[in-house]
Amino acid sequence: MSDDGEWLVPPDREPLNGFDTFVGFDATVADFWQFALGDLRMNNARGYLAEFVVAKALGLQKVRRMEWDAYDLLWEGVTIEVKSSGYLQLWDQRRPSKIVFTGLTGTRWHPRHDLDPSGKRYNAMVYVFCVQTATEHKRYEPLRLDQWTFYVVARSKLVALAQKSVGLARVRVLSGGQVAWPELGAAVKQAAIEEARDDDGDCWE
Predict the structure, then answer these.
(1) How large is the angle between the packed helices 184-192 and 43-57, nearest 10 degrees?
(2) At residue 75, does pLDDT exceed 80?
(3) Are strands 166-167 and 114-115 parallel, antiparallel or unpaired?
(4) Do 174 and 161 form a contact (C-beta atoms < 8 A)?
(5) What phi and psi, each to the nearest 5 degrees, are found at residue 28?
(6) CA-CA distance, 72 to 33, in Å (whole number)?
(7) What is the pLDDT of residues 92-151, one digit of tens each?
(8) pTM
(9) Cβ neighbours for 142, distance < 8 A, ≥ 6 positions apart
(10) Can you tell me the distance from the alpha carbon of 188 to that of 195, in angstroms, rounded to the nearest whole number?
(11) Does 201 score more than 50 pLDDT?
C-alpha cells in the first residue's frame, strides 16, 4: 500500500464454473468443490447451505456469500442473519445434539477502519433460524427441503433477550412458531418493521 492512501481493491469476477480447470495439474473446480463441500452434513457446509436455502426462498438469484460481512443476506433493504443447527453431526454421538444457535452477536470489521468500537452487537435486522430435523443418519438428506424447519425473529426481540446464544424452545416462542419455506419472505418483511439498520452512514458505508 502506498503512502497516498491507495488500496488494493479486488474486482468483481464471474462465479467459477464446475468445469473450469486448474493450471498445472489435472483437476476441475468441481473436484475442489467435492473435496471442500462434498458432504453437506459438515457444520460449516450446513451453515452455507442454510444461507443458500433462505436466499432462494427470498428470490435472490445471483447472490454470493461474502466472508466477514456483518450479516449474511441483504434483501429489499433488510439485513438478515441466518443461523443453522442440526441434531446429527459427522462424529459419533450418544444421542442427537441439542439445538442451540450461537454467535448471535459479533463485532463488525471494516478493512479500512478495523473493528467497530461499539464492540459485539446484533448486526442484522432479522434473524432466520434453520433446523435440519433428521435424527437418523439413514434418513439424513441435506438437500430435502422437507427436512428443514425455519423460524424468523426480529432483532429487537433478541436484544431484549440479551444472550449470545439461544435454544430452540426460546426461538419458537420469540418467532411465534415455524414458518414454511415459501412464506419466509413475508415473515422477514413483517419482522423487519421498525427494525433499523446499523450499517448505514459513517465509516461503514
Answers:
(1) 90
(2) yes
(3) unpaired
(4) yes
(5) -110, 170
(6) 21
(7) 999 999 999 999 987 777 767 777 777 778 889 999 999 999 999 999 999 999 999 999
(8) 0.90
(9) 40, 41, 46, 49, 132
(10) 11
(11) yes
C-alpha cell at 159: 436484544
Question: How much of the chain, in percent, has pLDDT values that exceed 90?
Answer: 71
Type and span of the H or E element at 158: helix 155-161
- CA-wise closest residue to 126 among 182, 193, 40: 193
Three cell numbers at 181? 419455506
Query: In b/e form, how buried is each residue of 57-86, taking b as 16+ CB within 10 angstroms?
Result: bbebeebeeeeeebbbbbbeebbbbbbbbb
In this structure, what are the phi and psi dihedrals at residue 81, rounded to the nearest 5 degrees?
-110, 130
The residue written with cell numbers 418467532 in the block is: 175
Length of the chain: 205
- E strand or H helix that includes residue 73: strand 73-75
